[in-house]
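Hello forum,

I keep getting stuck at the same step: I have a sequence, I want structure tokens, and every attempt I make locally crashes halfway through. Rather than fight my setup again tonight, could one of you with a working pipeline run this one for me? It's a single chain of 263 residues.
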Amino acid sequence: MIHVRELTKHYADLRQGRIVALAGISFDALPGQIYGLLGPNGAGKTTALRILSTMLRPISGTATVNGFDVVKQPDMVRRQIGFVSSSTAVYDRMTGWEMVEHFGRLYGMNPEPLRERMEAVFARLQMNGVRDVLGAKMSTGMKQKVSIARAIVHDPPVLIFDEATAGLDVLVARALLDTVVELREHGKCIIFSTHIMREAERLCDRIAIMHHGHILAEGTLGKLRETHDEQDLEELFFRLISQQEEESKKESEVDCEGKVVRK
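Reply #2:
Ran it on my machine without issues. Output:
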């Protein structure tokens, strides 16, 4: 469903020179699976997801979504995905129903199938109380439900959640996670980015631990625990991060000719 191979992205910075956001990552995510990207801020998670959703172009490497290339076929890729993040905004002067309808039309849905689909989505997400509420008057939880509804109204096979629970209270966050699980049960391929260990443990079928643009470890939670001889995911995470930091520090002490500059 999603296949990523040697994906690279870097940026030019006047002070720091080249900043590497992705350093050649590769992974696969399948239907009926929640694939977790776990890492601290700046790990490269959002960059990877923005490339998958065609908002950014990679420097090198390839990525396909449901068989469509993110660089060569961006219009087709956008039809395959729904994107939800903590920063997704709503229009203040549109009601919940109007916003979801607007996005359905953007996806080219015909009026009658769109109305039927919206009725089903609003019922599933328990959103009928938000139908006529203006965006400016919505609570944070209401806004997040609208964001999910407009992401799934066209029934995409792939859903991307980019730190979607950040800033939410515990009740709203719990409801969102329950929705993600339900979507997996409907056969969706889900990419779930987070830096919250508990979310990854609860939801994800496979996990990739990222730091500074690299995937440090990847696999099922059980396999990661077995491979690294650590049952606590948070401890496993910090151990891998610390190891990479040490390796990066050693590399920075060696000049371009391989001579030790500082010990």
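Residues 2 and 29 are 5 Å apart (CA to CA). If your local run keeps crashing, start a new thread with the error log.
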